[in-house]
């Protein structure tokens, strides 16, 4: 029996040796800091696969991450990291929290993209952090913040290059990083739970905003499956 190292809202972390862990994707879907939660049958498998495909694309483009391989249908084998409880968001098009927080209108284009940091803390509703907060809270040094910012922007470029030829537009996404030795490595997942992807032209939503807006679970699943199919084609 392997030891359960942790459990989040959508994943289990299981011991797999000294330097490796398994990430098992659950069928849960949540929104609003976990206040809204449902079971979406098959979502774990779709998100494990989506993450595996996207981490592989990053790897092909020379971006390192914790990803090693897909272990089974809903599980990834990854390098063990000391995760930093910070959500790094990259935005290409304005939507979501930024249009509520700042005098920015839905749909405004950010060129260059905007990078934001949030404390991963549902109780505090993931507050926005600047580099001074990150340093003061001992989350990241100024050098690490700059490194993560640069990595996040490179990830954005690669993902956009993957999506654009497929007729998809990357509005924004969230990534998380962790420590291994002295370097910071991309961890966590890359799925529609944490990125906004729209069909170019029609603006059709393929991501978790469908769930946030109260669409049926069936529609959410259809969108997630369609995205994975387009990605894999
Ligand atoms: O999702 P919400 O409008 O609350 O927040 P946001 O800051 O506009 O989210 C920006 C991007 O980060 C979106 O793609 C979200 O799906 C993602 N995100 C996430 O994965 N986890 C969070 N706790 C917050 C945002």
Automatic annotation (TrEMBL):
The species this protein was found in: Sulfodiicoccus acidiphilus
Name under which the protein is recorded: Phosphoribosylaminoimidazole-succinocarboxamide synthase
EC number in record: 6.3.2.6
Family, similarity comment: Belongs to the SAICAR synthetase family.
CDD domains registered for this protein in UniProt: SAICAR_synt_PurC
Name of the gene: purC
Gene3D superfamilies: ATP-grasp fold, B domain, Phosphorylase Kinase, domain 1
Pathways per UniProt: Purine metabolism; IMP biosynthesis via de novo pathway; 5-amino-1-(5-phospho-D-ribosyl)imidazole-4-carboxamide from 5-amino-1-(5-phospho-D-ribosyl)imidazole-4-carboxylate: step 1/2
GO biological process: 'de novo' IMP biosynthetic process; cobalamin biosynthetic process
Family matches, as HAMAP family: SAICAR_synth
Claim: Ligase is one of the keywords in the record: yes
Catalytic activity: 5-amino-1-(5-phospho-D-ribosyl)imidazole-4-carboxylate + L-aspartate + ATP = (2S)-2-[5-amino-1-(5-phospho-beta-D-ribosyl)imidazole-4-carboxamido]succinate + ADP + phosphate + 2 H(+)
Keywords: ATP-binding, Ligase, Nucleotide-binding, Purine biosynthesis
GO molecular function annotations of the record: ATP binding; phosphoribosylaminoimidazolesuccinocarboxamide synthase activity
Domain SAICAR synthetase/ADE2 N-terminal residue range list: 5-222
